[in-house]
Amino acid sequence: MINAPFLTACRDLLGRDHVLLESIDTDAYLVDQRKRYRGHALAVLRPANAAQVAALVRLCVAHGVPMVPQGGNTGLAGGATPDASGRQVVISLRRLDRIRQVDANNMTLTAEAGCLLANVQAAAAEAQRLFPLSLAAEGSCTIGGNLATNAGGTAVLRYGNARELCLGLEVVTPQGELWDGLRGLRKDNTGYDLRDLFIGAEGTLGLITAATLKLFAQPAARMTALAALDSPAHALALLNLAQRMAGPLLTGFELMSDFCLRLVAQVFPQQRYPFAHRYAQAVLLELSDNESEAHARDLLERLLSAAVDQSIVRDAIVANSLAQSNALWHLRESIPLAQSATGLNIKHDIAVPVSQVPAFLDATDPLVQRIAPGARMVTFGHLGDGNLHYNVMAPEDIDPDSFLGRYQSAVTAAVHDSVHAHHGSISAEHGLGQLKRNASAKYKSPVELALMRTLKTAFDPLGLMNPDKVLPD
């Protein structure tokens, strides 16, 4: 579909090099990270600053062109992929990649939406500060995308998710107006909290172009350990003990099943199974200490000793160097890579109350086995905030594609029903996008859905801002 007047206006605004039309240039923008969704676009547009984003939005409104905002395109729910119509444009925000300000005394950093998360972390470190949002895609995901999906990661337990790390936003509205809400204030009680409406909205209410983010003091030391346990209930007991003994020093608490560790060792032989014996579960825990390494090590060793004495922990490995700590974290971060190497899986990004994690697993694993006998459970995630990646892998003797085709629908429905029964959410940190927008309607009340639709209509009455995402049909 060709809209010549619109494309001419886009070229006049951005320059010909930043209005991409040929498939060799656009293909990477039109498919999601998991290759689950592939769309077509009228064009891929690459503005250089917030003023150009606003002008583009005004052009889209004038010509009735739907817009799909995109950051690093690392999302896992299809939220940044256009549909198949060829009518939509992808607005890539990658060129908005400046760190505008670091205010070390105010403990804030202002970054544009296209900044890579790793670059924001580095800018904070250069100012001897910490930006704690951390996740596997930090070398390729962008701050705008992190905020649009309210990303979580491995440090939510101590620092909170993306919403809690953001103080202010700059946003282009669906009418093409620029709202400057880049306030570095911890207290601002002057009306509706517009910032929180845009965070987690996946670009359906407006386009985030910059953010003012919270910084923290850099810890003097980090100590990491991998503990072996007999069950998720023991992992919960260890979490309670760690919170009691370490308090706010507890930064990370990651649960991994025995099968996850064996899968990593199978796919990546250089990463050996870490324990001398097999145990049902492992927990990777990390303390961040502002006093000293000696203080952190003493606390961690006392914590693990108490856990062993109380028959909570069966074995433990304490990292004695940064390299050993990185190796332990690499085990955890290699689980999704090992999954990908073995073929498609039935993936779920879910959250239940922390106290319900053992009960959820005890109830849901048998449900899955009844539907798909012999399925292998790849269960891991952020136990400290109740977020599990509850993934289901084909038995060894079944082709992964055939397994998905036969069982995905029934397995996903059973998992989501169990999540709901345990008072949880079917999307913890990846958003709804296209993947879960219709499924979410089953678990939201009519009042909640009506309020969401009222917001969408009020902000975007023409329905041009990332259509067919988040809200169900």
Automatic annotation (TrEMBL):
One of its GO terms (molecular function) is catalytic activity. Its cofactor is FAD. Residues 37-218 form the FAD-binding PCMH-type domain. It comes from the Bacteria. Keywords: FAD, Flavoprotein. It holds the Pfam family FAD-oxidase_C. InterPro entries: FAD-bd_oxidored_4_C, FAD-bd_PCMH, FAD-bd_PCMH-like_sf, FAD-bd_PCMH_sub1, FAD-bd_PCMH_sub2, FAD-linked_Oxase-like_C, FAD-oxidored/transferase_4, Oxid_FAD_bind_N. SUPFAM superfamilies: FAD-binding/transporter-associated domain-like, FAD-linked oxidases, C-terminal domain. The keyword Flavoprotein applies. Belongs to the FAD-binding oxidoreductase/transferase type 4 family. This is 2-hydroxyacid dehydrogenase. It comes from Pandoraea horticolens. The lineage of its organism: Bacteria, Pseudomonadati, Pseudomonadota, Betaproteobacteria, Burkholderiales.
